[in-house]
Structures
1.
Amino acid sequence: MNENYTTNTAQRPTQFPVARLLSWLATGIVAASCSLLAPILIRAIPIYSNMFQGLEVQLPWPTRVLFATYYWLLPSFFVGLAVFVIWKECSARELRRKFQLTARVFFAAFFTVGLVIFVLYLPMLTLASKLVDAK
């Protein structure tokens, strides 16, 4: 068709600066949220621990594991997610892959928060089910 048309491969990396900027912005938001979630959870979990000690209720094993490991497990997990999301920005080449990995880290972080909240409420749910069975 057009024989004079050629693609310049040297200009390809600078072709989408807005998409790259959005990718770094999404990475920054996810990394900042991961760095903020660990201290928030570390401050909230001892409140539940003290409450359950006062109630003298038998805790399910997920809650016991969480109370035993939250101080080192949650910060290492969230720092690992933040480091990974920044590292992938430097190592992944395709923008689509960068966005996919950022979204996966975002969902992993907020799924973990939901899981921690569920494990914290698990003793109250078992206590409520025992009360219903007692009626």
Note: The CA atoms of residues 57 and 96 lie 49 Å apart.
2.
Amino acid sequence: MIRVKPGVRFTTVAPAGFLILTALKAASRKLGKDLTITSGTDGLHSGPLDPHHLGEAFDIRSHDFPEALRPVVLKAIMEELDPARFYGFLEAPGQANEHFHLQRRKGTMFSVEDFLRDEPVSRGTILESSVATS
């Protein structure tokens, strides 16, 4: 399930943002764990052209997962997105503000037509297989 931290806003959601949200839902199902969105279009970020304010970026709480599983969670999300058009990383690792940041890759375009064409692909339960091999 996808949860939303109180105060998070979705004033604008661009096609790339809708695909990220779809990928989050797929990754949550695959992991069997809730994911919490901690920032949408709210917050200061880096100005009016920041991808958050354009509805093309979201932050996800990482502290809900043990440190060893955080790369697994990020991988599960990113496997649902085209790496040529999207990227994600663990921002501020080890700090109180640590979170997963996901956005449309700078210099790329992602239209409504692209959103209608692209669909995240579920690839099984990545969390179970990663825990078993740890």
Note: Residues 128-134 have pLDDT under 50 and may be disordered.
3.
Amino acid sequence: MKKRPFLSGAILGLLLTAATPLTTFAVEEMDFHLKTTRDLYDLCSVKADNPNYLPAHWACKGFIEGAVQYHDGVSSTKNLNRLICYPPTATISDGKAAFTAWGTKNLNNTEYMDEIPVVGLVRALSAEYPCSK
């Protein structure tokens, strides 16, 4: 009986395709719940070739913008000390780059990566944009 390489290749391809989401996607639906700094890092560090890149990218940027706007609003109206002193030319993309670089350096620091995401974000941004004392 003649073997059918196409059929075996198709079955193998189907199995590999079915296994792909489990092994190559850095972001999962649960990461969008943003319970930890690691969840935010996972969203912000998704590569552009990932099918989840666009929602992850915009969720990351939206979180950063919201947190920074809140920080700015509270620190200016309540006369509280600023924690982040970014230059006027800084962009949300700069903040995202600073956060992902900080996250990469602290990836094995479970204390930091298990904190709520706004704390990790402020840690990262205040390290990149410290305020003079």
Note: The longest helix spans residues 53-77.
